[in-house]
Amino acid sequence: MSFAALWESLLPLGRDAGSGGYRRFSWTPADAECRRWFLQAAAERNLRAITDRNGNLWAWWDVPRADPGAGPAGAVVAGSHLDSVPDGGAYDGPLGVVTAFAAIDLLRERGKAPARPLAVAAFCEEEGARFGVACLGSRLLAGAIEPARARALTDSGGITFAEAMTAAGQDPDALGPDQALVGGIGAYVELHIEQGRGLGDLDAAIGVAERIWPHGRWRLTFTGRADHAGTTRLGDRRDPMLAAAATILAARGAAARHGALTTVGKLTVDPGAVNAISSSVTAWLDARAPDEARLHAVVDDVLTQARTAAVAHGVDLGSAQESITPAVDFDAALRDRMVTALAATGIAAPILPTGAGHDAGVLAARVPAGMLFVRNPTGVSHSPAEHAEAGDCATGVTALAAVLADLACR
Ligand SMILES: [Zn+2]
Questions:
Q1: From the CA of 284, how far away is ligand 1's center (Å)?
Q2: Span 329-356, pLDDT tens digits
Q3: What is the pLDDT of residue 271?
């Protein structure tokens, strides 16, 4: 089956008729449809499908006996995820799963057979859209989150991950690290639509990931004095909104100076009245940078300017780091090997970093992992407007097949 036919068969599942975006949330009917699609794609290819104890899907092309002389030890796995953010695009996740099945088709058309087990994987709850923790399935598999914590995560309706899993026919008591499965993997390769315009600017269809930038979230609370909008003279005000506004603008400038990215995408304002000066404003700063030194430099820069703004407007400032995720460096040997295999197929693939998290980043702590990116002309992602050209998707299949052939076949 061609990439296009397989892609078309997945396209209608979990799509919202109004927005055209996807609502494929873990353990919902839309998720069940995607899982059935995966199992059918595996069955059509005579691949051995399993759902692991953490709800991740695997389709195995088994080999009678792994050939120890064929490159790095262990199975070679390609995949991504099928779940989406609310009103997500068609490509984020599914492109990596569909291209993996299509790459297996291509290998078979070319008479290739793996010397080691080859699998397609689809990880559970990658977006964290329902239960709030991104890459939950791969974190559980890799032992990067406590099973008890995962079981207790709740969705917006108060349903726990354990309850949702049980309702879908899975046993939540089995959640947890799976050493037998992870220990058998020699390489994990995730093809993903690029979530930016890096490849477009480089005029390249395919890229190879270098690293995932370190990132973190900080909470800044500006506390002033609520007062009347009509009777309080300007000079008498202690308005936290002004300090917050100055800080948001400062964050943009700091990002430009440090070659980083900063975003304030969430504010809470108390009391939130049109005709009252606020008593307090809380702003959440998301910061990402090429390395940890620059991440801390840009955040320090923002906090310094926030303190200055707070003093200037006579308000108090409290700040707290809510989370920090270190950089992930993908396996250098695997990365170089992928670049070489692609070059041999006539695909010049630039190496580029990314500011987004992925299952490959979680698995990189346990197995050699790498990523291929497919050009996204607009760079828009997590939106129904997310798009990759059919020709670039086809090149993605060719690229992934070349990488899998190099890693798993001889
Ligand atoms: Zn994704």
A1: 23
A2: 999 999 999 999 999 999 999 999 888 8
A3: 96
CA 246 – ligand 1 centroid, Å? 33
Do residues 4 and 390 touch, judged by C-beta distance below 8 A? yes
pTM metric for this prediction:
0.88
Cα-to-centroid distance, 94 and ligand 1 (Å): 8
> What amino acid occupies position 392?
D
Which whole-number Å values give the CA distances from 402 to 79, 147, 399, in the listed order? Answer: 15, 37, 5
> Who's near 273: CB < 8 A, 6+ residues apart?
none
SS3 78: strand
CA of 127 to the centre of ligand 1 (A): 7
Distance CA 122, CA 53 (A): 13
- Quote the strand ranges of 82-225, DSSP E: 118-123, 185-193, 206-212, 215-223
User: What tokens were used for 359?
Assistant: 């299952």
Q: Residue 375: phi, psi to the nearest 5?
A: -50, 140
The one-letter amino acid code at 64 reads P
Dihedral sign from CA coordinates of 106, 109, 112, 116 = positive
128 Rama sector, left if φ>0, alpha if ψ -120 to 50, beta otherwise: left
Instruction: For residue 117, report the distance from its CA to the centre of ligand 1, in Å.
Output: 24
pLDDT digits (tens, 9 = 90+) for 260-272: 999 999 899 999 9
